[in-house]
């Protein structure tokens, strides 16, 4: 395992284009977080002095993280999809024939990268809210029940692992990137409308659209529309949403593990 991890590290560190693109991606994540983290932006015609009690301070951290997750999933999918695309997986498995260790090393690298993406996004948000005069939550700001730092990190890690698994199963980087985004933002939303009166239980366990409710707090989820006719209070949110999504990710990783261990490279 150590040798496989060292191999992954050498690949990142020695190929110039790899670490340059990673650095640019981290920079883009931090910039987006800084740009979006503007808790004073409460709409036109609003007196900034009156905004103090309505500052969406925590949303300044959670909203940018959703965009950061898309960029993070690109890195996760490429970590295995590019090896299949260019045939490098054969060289990897020739040097390290223990496939289980190779897969474990890749998973560790993906998890570590997703945690770094989360940290960079939150750091960019913190810089943004600090420069805009809100380094800490203003008085009267609603505080979520659970830590958004931990929830956000788990959300990004699970999303990245889903992209990794799909890219590995299909051997296509593009599918690893596109399937979670298209499914979560388009397909599952349409399914929710179609199934709302026929199989609402299915709406509650859709994978990626459920994951995007990680930042909805349970004690404040008694209002607001959601998928189909189901209110947000009827859908999994917070840790429940991540639990549902985690089950899907485990299933995808199990399929990916079987494919990686048994299929010809």
Q: Please, could you describe this protein's structure?
A:
α4 runs parallel beside α7. The protein has eleven helices and no strands. The two termini are 20 Å apart. With 265 residues, the chain is mostly helical. The longest helix has 33 residues. It is globular, with a radius of gyration of 20 Å. 70% of the residues lie in helices and 0% in strands.
Q: Please state the average pLDDT score.
A: 83
Tertiary shape: globular
Distance between the termini: 20 Å
Low-confidence stretches: 223-228
Helix content: over 70%
User: What is the rounded Rg?
Assistant: 20 Å
List keywords for this structure.
70% helix, mainly alpha
Helices and strands in order:
Blueprint: H1 2-14, H2 16-36, H3 48-51, H4 59-85, H5 88-95, H6 99-131, H7 148-170, H8 173-195, H9 200-203, H10 207-211, H11 238-262
């Amino acid at each position: 395992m150590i040798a496989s991890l060292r191999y992954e590290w050498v690949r990142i560190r020695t190929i110039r284009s790899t670490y340059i693109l990673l650095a640019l991606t981290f920079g883009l994540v931090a910039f987006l977080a800084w740009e979006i983290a503007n808790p004073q932006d409460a709409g036109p015609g609003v007196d900034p002095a009156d905004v103090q009690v309505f500052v969406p301070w925590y949303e300044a951290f959670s909203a940018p993280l959703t965009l950061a997750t898309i960029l993070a999933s690109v890195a996760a999918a490429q970590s295995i999809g590019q090896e299949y695309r260019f045939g490098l997986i054969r060289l990897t498995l020739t040097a390290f024939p223990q496939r289980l260790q190779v897969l474990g090393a890749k998973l560790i690298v993906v998890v570590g990268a997703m945690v770094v993406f989360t940290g960079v996004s939150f750091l960019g948000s913190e810089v943004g809210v600090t420069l805009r005069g809100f380094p800490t939550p203003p008085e009267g700001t609603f505080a979520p029940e659970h830590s958004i730092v931990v929830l956000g990190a788990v959300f990004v890690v699970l999303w990245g692992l889903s992209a990794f698994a799909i890219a590995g199963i299909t051997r296509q980087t593009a599918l690893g990137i596109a399937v979670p985004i298209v499914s979560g933002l388009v397909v599952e939303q349409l399914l929710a409308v179609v199934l709302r009166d026929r199989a609402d239980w299915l709406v509650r366990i859709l994978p990626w659209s459920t994951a995007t409710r990680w930042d909805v707090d349970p004690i404040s989820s008694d209002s607001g529309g959601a998928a189909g006719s189901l209110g947000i209070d009827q859908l999994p949110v917070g840790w429940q949403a991540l639990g549902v999504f985690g089950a899907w990710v485990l299933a995808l990783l199990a399929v990916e593990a079987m494919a990686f261990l048994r299929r010809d490279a």
